[in-house]
Design brief:
The structure holds two protein chains of two kinds.
Chain A (H helix, E strand, L loop, with lengths): L1 H24 L7 H23 L7 H19 L8 H16 L17 H35 L5 H6 L3 H28 L5 H27 L3 H20 L2
Helix pairs in contact in A: 1-2, 1-4, 2-3, 3-4, 3-5, 4-5, 5-7, 5-9, 7-8, 7-9, 8-9
Chain B lengths: L1 E8 L5 H7 L6 H12 L3 E6 L3 E8 L2 H16 L7 E4 H12 L11 H15 L5 H20 L9 H13 L6 E5 L3 H12 L4 E6 L2 H10 L3 E4 L3 H4 L5 E4 L10 H7 L8 E5 L16 E5 H17 L1 H15 L2
Parallel strand pairs in B: 5-6, 5-8, 6-7, 8-9, 9-10
Antiparallel strand pairs in B: 1-3, 1-4, 2-3
Chain lengths: ~260, ~325
């Protein structure tokens, strides 16, 4: 059942992305992206409920579960921020990333059909995993906004101002403001996750290794935000920083 | 009952003829009442803009209405060649659809005409000169106009340099209410472009000109402030948009100067509009990451591209109108 919910959520995210892109190719903006994503979100919640029941805990025990949870978190932040701040096309750029994370979770052999129940959970441990991955949702959305900025920046620099993509992308300044807000939000959550990670019981050395790497990621993000805040940084470097840090941190955690 | 249209516009009559037919906004209702009296028809609407005056009537006999109208309007035409165009039935409905869609406008796809026709219709409705026939027709035509404008790119893009500059500024900064604009050189082109930015809400205008008195004059006109020309770099720290149009025979803004204030600006985006010939801004300034540099050629090219895009949409618009006409005129 959990797998079916995730498959459906993935199909809905793919539909949101494809429909949005097709509309853009025709010089129009799809007004349906947000509804596709709401439907995807409902399916993701269905998956999380079923999977959580199976685990008896927050379903964050395997790379596939983390990936699916991250997709949920990304969708959540998109739905909280995109329509409220009217960040046009955010859904079209977010949907493929959501589909990608969920598609990864659905790869054969990744999502255990009979997961073991978690017997010894701790409040610090649960908080650490849930809040950290939630933070990554905000940081993923920041990366999405970064990509949007890079696309628009290139179009403006090279004077390629035709087509729906240019017409509907939000202004440069709004993208940079959203990017910064999302990074601050992500960092606030990541800080909570990190503190919980330090407080949770560490039985193995790899657990400390994990906390050490998380601290490195936290420091890198703080460096980026503070540079922007105190010294200033060009939009391109700021956006590239957000995208690269997200990809790098995902890559690092995939191997730890 | 059939639809009849008689009118003059920028294609058929010079301004000295069009002005004789022009009706002010406040007198549109009264003009519609006069129209009914003149044509002896039960329903009528007068549409009047700077480029056209058109009479729409619902009548039993079109040729009779045309004859009465021409007779009534003969005095206004006096001394000029026949300026009228006449449409009946489906042709008249097609023409009205094209008018509200901006396809018959001097500036293809312009948006103002839609509101002007609506205003004319409401004035006639309030004056009691419309009935079931024209009410139904105008409502349907408005929905066709909306459809054409939303389903095609007929109104997409800016077709003048000033508007292209505004569109780009909005693409970079969003609402211009938080943007400061600096004008270098107090010529006509920079004045027009700055005015376009001010009309879209630009926060403040700073003017620098070699002749300081002229800068003060322009700044006063724009409700901004003037700075000495030698001091333009000093105020650039807080500026978001620079419009440069001096008569200098050489470049006045160089890469090194912009580089020198990047830190102070915290690397915020800077939009440079160079509408001077010869150019005022060294082209390598555009290589700076946060700088978006557009010269007169780039702006003109964008305006031209928008015009071409609009022209390319005509066929698409006509298709929509023809399909909708099948529903309007059976």
């Amino acid at each position: 059942m959990d797998r079916w919910f995730l498959i459906l959520a993935t199909l809905l995210a793919v539909a949101a992305g494809v429909r949005g892109l097709l509309a853009l190719r025709h010089g129009q903006k799809s007004g349906w992206t947000v509804w596709w994503m709401i439907a995807a979100m409902l399916c993701q919640i269905g998956y999380l409920v079923v999977r959580g029941e199976m685990r008896g805990a927050c379903p964050l025990r395997s790379i596939a579960e983390i990936s699916a949870y991250l997709a949920w978190s990304l969708t959540l932040f998109y739905l909280l921020i995109g329509p409220v701040y009217r960040i046009s096309l955010l859904g079209v750029f977010t949907a493929p990333v959501v589909a990608l994370f969920q598609g990864f979770a659905l790869l054969p052999g990744k999502l255990d059909p009979t997961p073991a129940r978690v017997l010894n959970t701790t409040a610090w441990g649960e908080t650490h995993s849930a809040v950290s991955v939630l933070a990554y949702g905000a940081l993923a959305l920041a990366a999405v906004a970064g990509v949007m900025f890079l696309v628009l920046d290139r179009q403006l620099k090279e004077h390629h101002l035709k087509g729906g993509l240019f017409r509907f992308l939000p202004p440069v300044r709004e993208l940079l403001v959203s990017l910064e807000r999302l990074l601050w939000l992500g960092m606030a959550l990541l800080s909570v996750g990190l503190i919980a990670g330090i407080m949770m019981p560490h039985e193995t050395e790899s657990a400390w290794e994990h906390v050490f790497i998380a601290s490195g990621v936290w420091a890198a993000y703080i460096g980026l935000i503070l540079t922007k805040w105190i010294r200033g940084i060009t939009g391109r470097k700021f956006a590239l920083g957000a995208v690269l840090l997200f990809v790098l941190s995902l890559g690092v955690f995939a191997f730890v | 009952m059939e639809l009849v249209c008689l009118g003059v516009n920028h294609k058929t009559a010079p301004v000295e003829v069009r002005e004789r037919f022009a009706v002010g906004i406040t007198r549109l209702g009264e003009a519609s009442q006069n129209l009914l009296e003149m044509a002896g028809a039960p329903e009528g609407v007068v549409v009047s803009t700077c480029n056209r005056t058109e009479f729409y009537l619902a009548a039993e006999n079109a040729s009779e209405v045309f004859a009465k109208l021409e007779k009534g309007l003969a005095e206004k035409v006096h001394g000029h060649e026949e300026p009228f165009y006449r449409y009946e039935k489906k042709e008249a409905a097609r023409h009205l659809c094209k008018v509200v869609s901006g396809m018959d406008s001097m500036l293809l796809g312009e948006t103002e005409i839609f509101g002007q026709v609506k205003q004319a219709y409401h004035a006639a409705h309030a004056a009691g000169t419309t009935g079931p026939f024209l009410n139904k027709l105008f409502q349907k035509v408005f929905s066709v106009g909306k459809k054409v404008r939303t389903q095609t790119s007929i109104q997409e893009g800016s077709t003048s340099i000033g508007n292209v500059a505004v569109e780009l500024a909005e693409k970079i900064f969003g609402h211009l209410k938080n943007s400061e604009v600096m004008v270098l050189g107090a010529g006509e082109m920079s004045r027009l472009t700055a005015q376009a930015l001010v009309s879209r809400g630009a926060k403040s205008i700073i003017v620098a000109n070699r002749t300081h008195d002229r800068a003060i004059e322009l700044a006063k006109e724009m409700k901004g402030r003037a700075v000495r020309f030698d001091n333009w770099l000093g105020v650039l720290k807080n500026v978001d948009v620079v419009i440069s149009s001096t008569g200098a025979p050489h470049t006045i803004i160089h890469k090194a100067e912009i580089e020198s204030i990047r830190r102070a600006r915290k690397f915020r985006p800077l939009f440079l509009i160079d509408i001077a010939v010869p150019r005022d801004i060294e082209h390598t300034v555009g290589e700076i990451e946060e700088v978006y540099l557009y010269d007169i050629d780039a702006l003109e090219q964008l305006a031209e591209q928008a015009k071409v895009r609009r022209v390319n949409q005509i066929l698409e618009c006509e298709k929509i109108i023809e399909l909708e006409l099948l529903k309007i005129v059976r």
